[in-house]
């Protein structure tokens, strides 16, 4: 399949378009836990790992000819979601530049939960760090072969950095604490 050029929109422009519009469709593709912590009041949550383009398009508030805006934490997952929609044959799919990080930085309206949830990226860092530390300690005190655990995690991080695809992130996104509060 050919690579599509993914249209994008700035957070400020999206916020301006939302004034007076009650049919603007914004889908947040972060995990349910990330969405529950903080999100734009414009968005509905459909995590990337559960994204069904046909179902999303059937449940739209706005007209099918209107753009569908996709947002995530920083823009990476929303671009992947745009590709999924385009591969399914949908057009007029737009990625929100900079994601929620840019939305917060622009001081635009937010919905915040009273509790604190660790972002998926933070969970990956904690998990990878814990595994590297465990592999190192086990190799030092029990058997040098345990260094393989640290090597495996390091290789996974290099692969994730080069490809933008993180196996640990995918696994963590499927954990129960990242699925709570899912609206779709």
By CATH reckoning, the class of the largest domain would read Alpha Beta
Mean pLDDT: 87
Uncertain parts: none
H/E order of the elements?
EHEHEEHEHEHEHHH
Cα end-to-end separation: 29 Å
Please indicate the percent range of residues in DSSP E strands (runs of 2 or more).
Answer: 5-15%
Q: What is the total number of structural domains? A: 2
Number of strands: 7
CATH topology of the largest domain: Oxidized Rhodanese, domain 1
Question: CATH homologous superfamily of the largest domain - what is it?
Answer: Rhodanese-like domain
Helix- and strand-based class? Answer: alpha/beta
Largest sheet: 5 strands, parallel
> Could you say which overall geometry the principal axes of the C-alpha atoms support?
elongated
Report strand order across the widest sheet. 1-6-5-2-4
Report Rg: 19 Å
Number of helices: 8
Helix content: 40-55%
CATH architecture of the largest domain: 3-Layer(aba) Sandwich
Could you walk me through the main structural features you see in this protein, from its secondary elements to its overall organization?
This protein is of the alpha/beta class and 184 residues long. The chain has two domains: 8-112, 3-Layer(aba) Sandwich (Oxidized Rhodanese, domain 1), CATH 3.40.250.10; 120-178. Helix content is 46%, strand content 11%. The chain contains eight helices and seven strands; from the N terminus they run βαβαββαβαβαβααα. A five-stranded parallel β-sheet has the order 1-6-5-2-4. Strands 3-7 form a two-stranded antiparallel sheet. β5, α4 and β6 (93-96) form a beta-alpha-beta unit. α6 runs antiparallel to α7 (147-163). The model has no long low-confidence stretch (mean pLDDT 87).
């Amino acid at each position: 399949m050919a690579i599509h050029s993914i249209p994008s929109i700035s957070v400020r422009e999206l916020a301006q378009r939302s004034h007076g519009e009650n049919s603007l469709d914004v889908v947040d593709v972060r995990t349910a836990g990330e969405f529950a912590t903080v999100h734009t009041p414009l968005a509905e949550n459909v995590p990337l790992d559960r994204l069904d383009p046909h179902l999303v398009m059937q449940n739209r508030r706005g007209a099918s000819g209107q753009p569908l805006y996709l947002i995530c934490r920083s823009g990476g997952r929303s671009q992947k979601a745009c590709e999924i929609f385009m591969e399914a044959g949908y057009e007029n799919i737009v990625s929100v530049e900079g994601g929620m990080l840019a939305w917060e930085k622009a001081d635009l309206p937010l919905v915040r939960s009273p509790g604190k949830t660790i972002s998926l990226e933070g969970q990956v860092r904690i998990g990878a760090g814990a595994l590297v530390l465990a592999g190192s300690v086990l190799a030092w005190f029990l058997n040098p072969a345990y260094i393989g655990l640290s090597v495996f995690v390091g290789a996974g991080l290099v692969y994730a950095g080069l490809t933008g695809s993180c196996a640990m992130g995918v696994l963590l996104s499927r954990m129960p604490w990242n699925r709570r509060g899912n609206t779709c």
